[in-house]
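B., you asked whether I could sanity-check this one before it goes into the benchmark set. Here's the sequence:
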Amino acid sequence: MTANTDPSAAAPPPLSGAAALFLDFDGTLVPIAARPQDVQVPAWVRPTLHALAARLNGALAIVSGRPIAQLDDFLAPLRPIAAGAHGAEWRDAHGAVRQVAAPPPDSVVRQAHALAARHAGLIFEPKSSGLSLHYRARPELEAECRDALMAALAAIPGASDDWEWLHGHCVFELKQRAVSKGSAVQALLLQPLFAGRQPVFVGDDRTDEDGIAAVQAAGGFGVRVGGGVTRARYRLADPASVGAWLRTALEPDTTSQENRAA
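And here's what the prediction gave me:
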């Protein structure tokens, strides 16, 4: 599909009650913060997710680069169906968690940790199946971080067959090639709650493009939040716009009511 670079691309159509909804977290439901632990969950998020899950008969999932445990901390008391760590783990409607666990290469972990130790403002975030290096507070270090991290992975024979770097909003993330947000979406679409529905993925950066591609290949549509090149058919400006769009799906269908009255 042709990439969409138009920041004024059309807003998505109203969300159908027959949709299977997949939502990124950072930059989509919550504004991005300088440090990942500092994000503030807007007041609308929890009640809207709760109501939408009921409206969609449970066919709603959060799909994030964060571990599921972090998502639970931010969204408590909700425990939604979720995929974390870019698809390395996902939780079904019964609460069962499936994992594709693999520790990242030691030398790459050491390089990321050394960069964070050497430069104030960089944040090293270890994960069970990868890692993240955040440089939002030091954007001038992007090239140094990229070159050092890419070189560390390339120095290990065969490691690039199993691991890859993702470049998100001021973050480099190491993940297994075997998993992605797209593979998480594909797995969830096989679950009874999601099967046979129109899949919709909403995300804000390059790490979400696999999820967007997966839903569009399955007959649904993607929504890009903010700017940037995307394969998504539609675009919303920011998390507040996402919230406004999601809440329209909870409004009474006045057309149906008028038809019944007639």
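One thing to flag: The chain has two domains: 19-100+179-249, 106-176. Otherwise nothing jumped out at me.
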